[in-house]
Amino acid sequence: FLSSVSTTWHSNDDDVYRAPPIDRSILPTAPRAAREPNIDRSRLPKSPPYTAFLGNLPYDVTEESIKDFFRGLNISAVRLPREPTNPERLKGFGYAEFEDIDSLFQALSLNEESLGNRRIRVDVADQAQDKGERPLAWG
Asked: Which stretches make up the RRM domain (predicted)?
């Protein structure tokens, strides 16, 4: 009787052992999913424009490289402010505007990803037209 019990345990071990490959299929999204909880959906704008603030940009960044960074998302505009005293030089930050809220949300999950040689910051841009619709959660 004891040996049949140990066989039962053995087959359970096999089941446990077989489980990890199933988990592995979930892994590719895990790092991004692990970052998502710190994106508070209530901070997202309720209506267009859906704009992300981009910080720590490399100084040689172009609109094309930004669009490439967010490829797959519905990006409608990129704004890269330049130094007034030196129009050739970018200020190191910019804005990307998205056509829909989901694209903005997914863009935020790319926070800290590398663009060029820098880990760039992606955050919700301050909405100037937010006239007190919702309490600001920061500042």
From this structure: 50-127
- Global pTM? 0.65
In the block, tokens 């992606």 appear at 122
Please report whether residue 86 resides in a domain. yes
Q: Is 34 left (phi over 0), alpha (psi -120 to 50) or beta?
A: alpha
Q: What tens digit of pLDDT does each residue of 112-124 get? A: 999 988 999 999 9
Look at residue 102 and tell me if it is in a domain: yes
Compute how many other C-beta atoms are within 10 angstroms of the C-beta atom of residue 124.
20
User: Does residue 68 form part of some domain?
Assistant: yes
Residues in the chain: 139
Bridge-partner residues for 90, per DSSP? 82
Contact 96, 58 (CB under 8 A): no
For residue 59, the domain's CATH number is: 3.30.70.330
Determine the structural domain holding residue 52 and report its residue range. Answer: 48-124
Helix (H) or strand (E) holding 125: none
